[in-house]
Amino acid sequence: MNRQTPLPSRNWVKRAEPIEGIERIEACFHGNAYAMHRHDTYAIGRTLAGVQSFNYRRSQRDSLPGNTLVLHPDEAHDGQAGTDEGFQYRMIYVEPALFQDALGGRELPFLEGGVTSDPRLAAATSTLLQNVGYTIEPLEQSNALAELAHALAAVAGTPVRRPKGDFLAARRAREYLHANCARIVTLDELEAVTSRDRWSLSNDFRLFFGTSPYRYLTMRRLDAVRRMLLAGTSLAHAAAAAGFADQSHMTRHFAKAFGLTPGRWLQIAGA
């Protein structure tokens, strides 16, 4: 993108057609975009124009056009324009389980800095970071995710050997939580489903999927809320249907996960 081309004056977010386990967006913001928040997916993107600034792991990071961003699951971050020009970017949000399909139970790759110019990641993200209007075919997506998973592991220096932990137990817990996310799930249930004690299972889950079982459950509820809001469901009805105690309970979790209130998110995403 030509950086001399002025960016639109309004903030906007464009979303691609949903794909299981992955979300693709393109957005433009001026000033402050997102408050501090954290989600349970990888956030991997490319700055297209302007300076994309964010606080991440105790430091401010600045991404310039062409840089690749890699934010690890459950790491707090915010987002704002580094200059008065504003910034434009594309981002994909990938469930760690999709990378585990390729890594087969290896430790999740972690890039410390959050911003990189490594050509391996630039190449590996080229398919998934195309214009949101581009339709990615299923086989194309699977191949691109595998390439990205291995590129992340190579750049991060992730050991080839599998770490200690029960990957199958963690995967069973994830599948159970996914199927029962609209109701309260107890630790006793997870122990019974996985034949793993709660403390070991919590460690396994974080090791292989980057977050805790409760955070995973909460994020699936919030995913449901976002789908319902885009379909025109009221905040109160969406909160109840997704399994939250009430609207205020949902709103608190929503802001912590996405850095925006539900109403503000809908105003931008639904425009």
TrEMBL record:
InterPro entries reported in the protein's UniProt record: AraC-bd, AraC_XylS_family_regulators, Homeodomain-like_sf, HTH-like, HTH_AraC
Residue intervals of the HTH araC/xylS-type domain: 171-268
Keywords associated with the record: DNA-binding, Transcription, Transcription regulation
GO molecular function, one term: sequence-specific DNA binding
Keyword Magnesium among UniProt keywords: no
Name of a matching Pfam family: HTH_18
Protein's UniProt name: AraC family transcriptional regulator
Source organism per UniProt: Caballeronia humi
